[in-house]
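hiii, so i know i said id send this last week but things got crazy w the move. better late than never?? heres the sequnce for the chain we talked about at the cafe, plus the structure i predicted for it. fair warning i was half asleep when i ran it
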Amino acid sequence: MKSLVWTIVLLVMVLGFSGAGIALSDPDPQQPTLNMDSMSVAELEKAGDEARATKNYEQALDYFRTAIRKDKKNAVLHNKLGLALLKAGKNSEARASFQKSMKLNSKYPEAVNNIGAVYFVDRNMGQAARYFKKAVALDESRPAFHVNLGAAWFGQNKLERAMTEYRRALQLDPEALSRTSNAGVAAQINTTEERARYDYMMAKIYYHNIGNVYKDEEFSQLRQDQRLSEIVPPPEAK
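okay and structure toks below
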């Protein structure tokens, strides 16, 4: 049974590494237009959350921007606006919103984490790790922050540091690597590529003899896939 489980894990790892980039959902063009000026800040925020939860990011942007015009110093609103912008693929604007949120509340860990997420999407792993570390320092109990920091370390090929963060995330929440949400306030790195990396790190953590993939008969079908060598280097020929 254990061998079968790891056959499946390694298959996911191999197939997962073929994915690249971050998929961004298109907004729903059927969302009705409301009279936002007559809505309170709380109503606008709630409507923005609901639009973001249904992946209608352009509509969410309208709600949050209108709310911010009525409450310019609300760090939470600037953070939520940034998340909608990030999902809409407007990375520079998203980073500016998160930075505004952090300026309004320097102890707001979600905004700090989310700045790191923008850098991660832009493939700047050094800056991403810097902000994820700050988020962890502000709130060490948040599994998503550890997952993100682990992903940034992995992106810099610092595998031991990555494993440490993944372990901590799993200590805090056994489901930390599989949780997804469109309506949260803290971005968590969760792409096909990162899922494959998570599986790889899980294999490293729990299957110490991962090199046996080239010895155990259960893994024989995977050896024909050239991508396997990118995850587990084959043994040198004698």
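btw Confidence is low (pLDDT under 50) at residues 1-32. thought thatd interest u
miss u guys!!
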